[in-house]
Design brief:
By secondary structure, this protein is mainly β. 45% of the residues are buried.
């Protein structure tokens, strides 16, 4: 028995040391699935997928790095990348106008001029043209000129939207909503009077549809949306190169002009017919050297290296498949079930957003992304997956709500069937419409402890339905407040078995009911005798804490209900309260009264994680009186201050935060508490000199009083657990690092006597 215990303890130490994320650190989970932009450099091929930059090594033939703000980038959501071979620099341009300039050694220089401008409204960069060391950026506000070698912004030209730019002889050409503009490089191009409109009137295309411009065979070649490719001769007269309504882009690479559709690239060596074509999925193409090799951004196929072998024949010689991770940066809803994170990406408010059907699962460090095409091929296009519920009797059995196509059932990662108005009591919001099938709007689904599936049905007379564990439908739940409401949102099932349903639109409020159909619709959140009226009844999120208190995120701050048991039997005694704090002048104020609370989650220490619409994440104490953390995009690794969802893995303490720019997590110091001290351990253990002294003691009971002593019983440190976990920095009460030795962890609660629960070896 002793040998077995020693082996188990050693295994736990090694496992936790190798796999545990350090408390207080962030982990990026950005989508890197659909590759849209590519740029070849001397030794690497850089690509952008879903706004994320990654790198393929030509030598090791693998994706060897994924970039983020944690690796040196200065922003998120990349729109375009281009490589300047003259300076051997890569320009990384973000959708908000921010720019990073980097080399192959990952030396990064930030150029925030466009992003930080208070004058520029549309900061979208559409096109990049290099003339030696100078970059010309065609953007929503005009043409921005930047000398890359000197780090100087030359100026802004045109002051109107621009989609493409190039230089021929002494003139700059730019495509704009009014057609092609032309100006002499020797003139003051900041003056609009020094620009002239090139006559591009043609029956073949619309002037406002002109996009990319390139100097090819000394002609200004351009692509017009839904038309084809044309060029301006030396007298600026228009000639047709290729009529093709399906073209989506055009590049000039290795002396080839390459217009392309989503499936075919055409290679021009001259203004005549293309010398050849290549068939492959294509969003972008790049080639640094004229050696017949091309690199293709190939959507879900990642990046492909293709080489011409014979006429019209290109073989794939390299492939950088997409990086494992979430399929999309859509995370409107998240839940964790037994350590498994499930995410849906649908959106809705007054109407549906039209987001692609998105269901993603993360477990044991691996991602599984459901292929919505398999669903669409069987039942038609299904979009806006709004929530997911895991069967308590089968963790591989899911039900997914959609805001238009009813409910989808999955088992063992395969689609099973669809439930709609045709085969269930679910109703359509437009029962008399010919498009009734696209209006079966389900706000959310959730399971109760008995294995019954509950759901909300929007814009219909019976807004609550139940599918029992034996497969029987019950649609007899018809309540005022949710009847015909256009958005009946989430169902929170409390520890008492009551169902709380937030209705944020129509007649806002909260429906509370039990299995016997007793109910109370709360349209006004009463503050009772507290003296502070509740600012808003627009309820967007809900959670029950470990004491049974219900926390509600409203459009004007968090609200809590400490008497939820009164909701049905004694509705007059049901009261809600804001968090009231005092300012420096001892004046009372309502905490976060100007913030919309989109998400609430409760961790193992009974602390509340509040996701706001514009101020990031607040972590508050059990009673809400203390702010423990306030994470923003400015003071942390958060991508954005707009938070959409929060879910906590109580086994590990990892807090998943869904922002409008994608998913990120924070390793919290709190985990779910244990019922005894039988599985307490500390990691890393031993603590070596090269470690930064953070030791996590986990497996504790709730509200444990933890003491660290030396072998002689001298008290070194004392603290309280956050749920089932506490962090010790290997320092004594004077703040000095402790000496080499063995230290004892003693713990106790009101229900458990003090005892030694773990030992920690420290090497100084």
């Amino acid at each position: 028995m002793k040998i077995r215990f020693f082996f188990t303890a050693c295994f736990l130490v090694v496992f936790c040391t190798l796999n545990a994320q350090k408390v207080g650190t962030w982990t990026t989970y950005l989508a890197c699935y659909t590759t849209t932009s590519v740029a070849e450099t001397e030794n690497f091929v850089y690509a952008v997928a879903d706004g994320t930059l990654y790198r393929y090594g030509k030598d090791d033939k693998s994706i060897n790095k994924v970039y983020s703000t944690q690796t040196g980038l200065n922003d998120t959501d990349i729109k375009i990348i281009r490589y300047n071979p003259s300076l051997k620099k890569l320009l990384v341009v973000y959708r908000n106008g921010n720019i990073d300039m980097m080399d192959e050694d990952d030396n990064i220089t930030n150029i925030p001029s466009i992003k930080n401008s208070s004058i520029i409204q549309d900061k979208t960069v559409n096109f990049i043209y290099f003339d030696g060391n100078t970059a010309y950026l065609a953007a929503g506000f005009g043409i921005w000129v930047y000398q890359m070698d000197k780090g100087d912004a030359v100026g802004t030209y045109l002051n109107t939207s621009s989609y493409g730019v190039c230089i021929r002889n002494e003139f700059i050409y730019a495509s704009t909503p009014t057609g092609i503009q032309k100006g002499s490089v020797n003139a003051n191009l900041r003056d609009p009077a020094n620009w002239a409109t090139v006559n591009t009137n043609s029956s073949d295309f619309k002037s406002y549809n002109i996009r990319e411009l390139y100097l090819f065979n000394n002609m200004v070649c351009f692509r017009a949306d839904s038309s084809g490719v044309y060029y301006l001769d030396e007298n600026d007269k228009i000639h047709t190169m290729r009529s093709d309504k399906n073209l989506i882009g055009m590049k000039l690479e290795s002396d080839y002009l390459i217009p392309f559709t989503s499936a075919t690239a055409y290679f021009y060596k001259s203004l005549a017919n293309p010398v050849e074509k290549m068939l492959t999925a294509i969003n972008d193409i790049s080639s640094l050297k004229n050696n017949g090799n091309f690199w293709v951004a190939s959507g879900g196929n990642g990046i492909l290296g293709v080489k011409r072998t014979t006429e019209n024949q290109y073989d794939i010689f390299a492939s950088g498949s997409t990086v494992e991770g979430p399929k999309r940066n859509l995370d409107a809803y998240m839940t964790v079930h037994n350590g498994k994170l499930l995410i849906t990406g649908g959106g809705r408010w007054e109407n549906r957003y039209g987001n692609a059907g998105t269901l993603m699962v993360y477990e044991d460090g691996k991602w599984f992304n459901f292929d919505e095409r398999k669903v669409n091929n069987k039942v038609g296009t299904c979009r806006d997956y709004t929530s997911v519920a895991v069967d308590p009797n089968d963790e591989n059995h899911y039900f997914v709500s959609t805001f238009g196509e009813g409910i989808l059932e999955f088992k063992n990662n395969e689609f099973v069937q669809q439930y709609s108005h045709k085969n269930s009591p679910l109703q359509s919001a437009l029962p008399k419409s010919s498009s009734v099938g696209n209006y079966v709007r389900v706000g959310s689904v959730t399971y109760d402890k008995s294995g019954n599936l509950w759901m909300t049905n929007c814009s219909v007379d019976k807004g609550i339905l139940k599918l029992t564990s034996d497969g029987t439908w019950d649609s007899s739940f018809s309540f005022p407040g949710v009847r015909n409401a256009d958005l009946v949102d989430k169902i929170l099932i409390t520890s008492k078995g009551h169902k709380w349903v937030n209705v944020p639109r129509s007649t806002p409020g909260i429906l509370i009911f039990d299995d016997d159909k007793n109910y109370n619709f709360v349209s006004t959140l009463s503050s009772g005798s507290s003296g502070t009226s509740i600012r808003s009844n627009v309820c967007l999120s809900m959670a029950e804490d470990l004491n049974g208190t219900i926390w509600i995120g409203t459009s004007q701050g968090p609200v809590y209900c400490s008497s939820p048991s009164n909701a049905i039997d004694r509705p007059d005694a049901l009261t809600f309260s804001h968090i009231i704090l005092q300012d420096d002048n001892d004046e009372n104020y309502v905490f976060l009264e100007s913030e919309q609370i989109n998400a609430i989650a409760v961790d193992g220490g009974n602390r509340k994680w509040l996701g706001t619409s514009g101020s990031g994440v607040y972590v508050i104490s059990e009673d809400g009186k203390e702010t423990i953390h306030h994470f923003t995009a400015e003071n942390s690794d958060l991508y954005s201050n707009t938070i959409q969802s929060i879910a906590i893995n109580h086994q590990t303490g990892e807090v998943f935060i869904g922002t409008d720019k994608g998913l990120i997590s924070y390793q919290s110091e709190s985990t779910e508490a244990s019922e005894s001290y039988s599985d307490v351990y500390a990691y890393p253990n031993p603590v070596r000199p090269d470690f930064d002294n953070q030791v996590v003691i986990t497996g504790l009971m709730a509200n444990s009083n933890v003491k660290i002593t030396d072998l002689s019983g001298n008290l070194i440190y004392q603290g309280k657990s956050a749920g089932g976990q506490m962090v010790w920095d290997c320092r004594n009460r004077s703040g000095n690092r402790v000496a080499t030795g063995i230290y004892l962890v003693l713990s106790s609660t009101e229900k458990a006597k003090e005892s030694v629960v773990a030992k920690i070896a420290v090497v100084k």
